Amino acid sequence: MKKILIIWAAVMLLLAPGRLGAQESVQLRLSDSAYASILTCGAGNEFYTSFGHSAIRVCDPAIHLDEVYNYGTFDFDTPHFYWTFTLGKLNYCLSRTSFDAFMFEYHAEGRAVWEQRLRLSNQEVNNLFIMLETNYLPEYRYYKYDFFRDNCATRIRDMVRDCLCHRSLSPECTADTNCSYRGILYRSTERTLLWWRLGIDMALGVRCDQRCSNYEYMFSPLEMMKQFDTLTVSDTRQALAEPATVLLSETRTPLARSVSPTLLFWVVFLAVMCLTLLEWQRGWSLRWFDRTLFFVAAIFSLMALFLWFFTDHYCTKVNLNVLWASPLFFYFAIKLQKSNRVMVYIQLAMLFAAMVMTLGALPQQLNAALFPISLTLALRLISNIRRRN
Fold first, then answer.
1. Which of 153, 283, 316, 374 has CA 20 to 30 A from 228's CA?
2. Closest alpha carbon to 43 in 191, 209, 158
3. SS (H, E, C) 255-272
4. pTM, whole model, 2 decimals?
5. Is the bond into 243 cis (omega within 30 degrees of 0)?
6. Across-strand partners of 38?
């Protein structure tokens, strides 16, 4: 199958009129000095750069070719960009630039860059080059992006796998082999992106907590770099890549540590509990506070349900955040003390289940900040029942 793909790619490349320059079209086969390497870029200060980046370099000093292929390119000028991205229908594309231009960009951003040279035969380097050039054709360069299953790292992983001749990759088992997609994301949001982590946890569902294989780890550029340090080839059992070398050291100013949303929402819960006690003692009415609180929870439920049922995102399905951000809160916001008692008990049970899941992470890991949020909602529901009695 690999041979068929490579032959087809070569034919398509040769038949593409005007795609390659004169020198490139003559020198389709690279020289014996050609090599390919994986470039891994460290995190940047923008959220969409916080998980790092991967690209692949093909270099042939004999013909002065040194190109970087980047599957992580998107166009902010795409019509309805944010809406298209929300629906999971945004197309990313393969771009190609010179190695010097690539390095200049990351030097300007102060981001680290590592290189892992691949131990490929000359034929395998040529296979990879042909496949990349074919993918760069206008009719093939666009693909529908999926953060976990089809992104700038997974495309490179699959390209390297498919260019091999008569051998295959063998990922080695590592100590954290039972980590989930969410667990890997947590590594990139540990200190400075806690609010983004909360937003991610509210958007992602049960599928994000499935245990990953070492091969699936490689959706993350930084994890892929670690995995390529252990990947071996089936024939010799030797490492496929040389140890990573630093091309650029990080010079950017690190982001400041963010305020913990969990801590903040515990403070909010304590404040609401004090107000509730005063309400019970002095007969205050917190009706408008309750309406606002319940409407906000209900709006979050609509967001979770929209991502679940109306988008193409793989990991937003079966989102158990609807236990605490329930559509029932629309009903409670309208009815308040007149709410059906059975409905209130059902919602309280759902809130209790959500709190348990923040501790037990089964079947879905809910963000720790949702414990005080669920407790606050439960307290106000109980207060409404008490006021009615």
1. 316
2. 191
3. CCCCCCHHHHHHHHHHHH
4. 0.85
5. no
6. 56, 116
